[in-house]
Amino acid sequence: MDQLETASQRLDKAMKRLEGTLESLIEQAREPVALRRERDALLVDRDELAERLEAALSREIELEGLTEEASGAIGTAIEEVRAALGQDE
């Protein structure tokens, strides 16, 4: 999970730098409307990626819980098989 959070933070910083750069370009450009549209599209993409990342983080937590549950069930099954084999001997 730490890697995803780190990636999320890096993405956010990069997008903020990109926003700043785009703002400068918009001021200097002859067609600021087109650049603003592109910037707005990038912002929408960033928001969508942030939502997807949040969903992935939630799914990771859910999968960790399921993994622990499955591991416990497998451990119990192994103990039961060992006990059954010991009784058969």
Features:
mainly alpha, rod-shaped
What would your notes on this structure say?
This protein has 89 residues and is mainly alpha-helical. It has one domain (2-88). Helix content is 94%, strand content 0%. The protein has 2 helices and no strands. It has helices at residues 2-28, 32-88. Helix 1 packs antiparallel against helix 2. The longest helix has 57 residues, at 32-88. It starts with a helix and ends with a helix.
Strand content: under 5%
List the helices and strands in order: HH
Output mean pLDDT: 86
How many discrete domains?
A: 1
Provide the gyration radius in Å: 25 Å
Low-confidence stretches: none
Number of helices: 2
Structural class: mainly alpha
Please give the number of β-strands.
Answer: 0
Proportion of helical residues: over 70%
What gross morphology would you assign?
Answer: rod-shaped
Biggest beta sheet summary: none
Question: How many angstroms separate the termini?
Answer: 46 Å
